[in-house]
Design goal:
Blueprint lengths: L18 E7 L4 H17 L5 H18 L15 E7 L3 E8 L21 H8 L2 E6 L7 E8 L14
Antiparallel strand pairs: 1-2, 2-3, 3-5, 4-5
Helix pairs in contact: 1-2, 2-3
Length: about 170
Amino acid sequence: MLEPLRQGLPPLDPATVSAAASCALPARYEAVREARQFTRCTLGQWETGDRFDDVCLVVSELVTNALRHGLPANTPRIPGQEPPVRLHLMRWTERLVCAVRDPSHDSPVAREADDDFSAESGRGLFLVDSFADSWGWHPLAGMLSGKVVWALFRLHPEPGDRLADFAD
């Protein structure tokens, strides 16, 4: 079984973020399409090179998981209240982080991928693990409730190079 990393974002200096964008996502499955469109538009401006498709796929999986597992059943859209799921994209010179916040305190559960391709779900975090260089989650603190699940991508990586640690 894949074990999610319970840790905060990698030690990347927030002061060195070269670009950042975020969007609030409503509690409905159409929000996955909205998140993909937001990501495509944002990444199109950030020159992410060959990681474009990987990041879009991972964002889709993280948002789907937040909507499916991070919200109480039948979460209503309350006028004037911020939608319960939020997508954040942050770019450093050679790294990109996508983070999805949801109101659940439950840790993400990654299941082993199997050869049963007839299953309609259950492969999301396996895909995140396969396409991102690193991923993890952490509970929110202070006035914010819930958790953030994040994925880190090295931009312009060497072929076959997975991020072993976060130090440059």
